[in-house]
Design goal:
Number of strands: 6
Strand content: 25-35%
Order of helices and strands: HEHEEEEHE
CATH superfamily: Bacterial OB-fold
Strand order of the largest sheet: 2-3-4-6-5
Structural class: alpha+beta
Largest sheet: 5 strands, mixed, barrel
CATH topology: OB fold (Dihydrolipoamide Acetyltransferase, E2P)
Number of domains: 1
Number of helices: 3
CATH class: Mainly Beta
Distance between the termini: 38 Å
CATH architecture: Beta Barrel
Length: 157
C-alpha cells in the first residue's frame, strides 16, 4: 500500500509539472519570431522605417478586447506608450486572462490614417473609456494610428 501511495504521489507531481510547462508559453498563429525584435518606442518614434518588413515587438499586455479577443495592447518600453496588436475577428482569440503577461507579436506594421473628424471621435472615445474630460476643439490636426497585424503571437506566463 505504501508503494502505491508513493507511486501515485510521483505520478501526480509529474503530471502537475507537465501541466505547468504546457502553460508557460502559449502560441497563436505561427508564434513569434524572436530574431526580429524591435522596441515599441523605436517603432513609434520612426514608424516609416518599420513598415516594409515583418517585425516582432515585446510588451506586457495592458488591454484585451473583451468582446471577441481580436486585439490587445502591449505596453512599450517607454512610459505611457502602447501598441495595438489587431487581428481579423476569429483569426486569433486573445484571452482576457492574458492581461499582465508578457507577449511577443510578429507581423506587419500598418498605418491607419484618420480624418480630422475621425481623430476627434477616436480621442473622444479614448477619453470616455478612461473616464476623462475631452474637448473636441482642442484637436486641430488629423492623426495616424499605428498597429501591428500579426502572423504569430507568443504569450508567456
Amino acid at each position: 500500500m505504501r508503494f502505491l501511495n508513493t507511486a501515485l504521489a510521483v505520478i501526480l507531481i509529474v503530471t502537475l509539472s507537465l501541466i505547468n510547462v504546457a502553460y508557460a508559453e502559449r502560441n497563436f498563429g505561427t508564434g513569434a519570431d524572436m530574431t526580429q525584435l524591435a522596441k515599441i518606442s523605436s517603432i513609434l518614434a520612426a514608424p516609416e522605417r518599420y513598415m516594409s518588413s515583418p517585425i516582432t515587438v515585446e510588451g506586457a499586455i495592458v488591454k484585451v478586447c473583451s468582446k471577441r479577443g481580436c486585439w490587445m495592447e502591449l505596453a512599450s518600453d517607454k512610459k505611457f506608450q502602447t501598441l495595438r496588436i489587431k487581428v481579423r475577428d476569429g483569426d486569433m482569440v486573445f484571452p482576457m486572462a492574458a492581461m499582465g503577461k508578457v507577449a511577443y507579436a510578429t507581423g506587419q506594421l500598418k498605418a491607419l490614417e484618420l480624418s480630422l473628424e475621425q481623430s476627434k471621435k477616436y480621442l473622444a472615445y479614448l477619453a470616455q473609456e478612461n473616464d476623462e474630460q475631452f474637448d473636441a476643439n482642442s484637436v486641430t490636426q488629423a492623426m495616424t494610428i499605428y498597429e501591428l497585424s500579426p502572423t504569430g503571437v507568443t504569450i508567456k506566463d
